[in-house]
Amino acid sequence: MSFITSYCHLNNENCSVNGEIIAERDRESEDSWFKQLYKSQEFVYPKFYKMDTLSQSGYLLSEMIKRAQPSLITSYNDDEIAMLFANQFSSADSDLRFEKSYKEQGTPSPALFVYTLPNIVLGEIAILNKWYGENMFAVLPKFAPDFFVNYIDILMSAGTKAVLCGWLGITGEQVNVFVFLVEKEGLAGNEFNTGNLAQIAGPGLL
Fold it and tell me: 68-91: b or e for each residue (b if 16 or more CB lie within 10 Å)?
């Protein structure tokens, strides 16, 4: 049996961990919403400022999951942690900005080109944490609890013990991000099944 042992939501107005709001957006701030979060949570990872918004969202919520569930860092070998992320629009946000860079400026931006694949966010998190388990980024029409349940069952049956999962809904100014941790032997948490996952994800994703 597996369990959802921690989860985070991030939208345009606030960020919550395990259902508790930990930060609210300051519309008067000169910083972007993601930079506000980075500073307020006192994260230290200078590469954050070079990431696109998709990777920034994955980085921020994965760090919050680690804080909420330290077992992710202390209880597993580096090849026992997998990642399974998805969204609806792939890396479209960075794709459009890259297209604009060479159409309007005449010079394609290498810094933007790096992020024109959605799975780059997985590489950013894996490199930071030195995780070498399986990882996949899927593009789906909408958030699908049964997809996560079925795929994680496969990963767990092959030796994975924890899976960091996420739906990274980043399109223009719209933010709808949900990251959750599934552990094979969680000491406390919700049983991992489609019903519980749909309930925790909330109506904003379904």
Answer: bbebbeeebeeebbbbbbbbbbbb
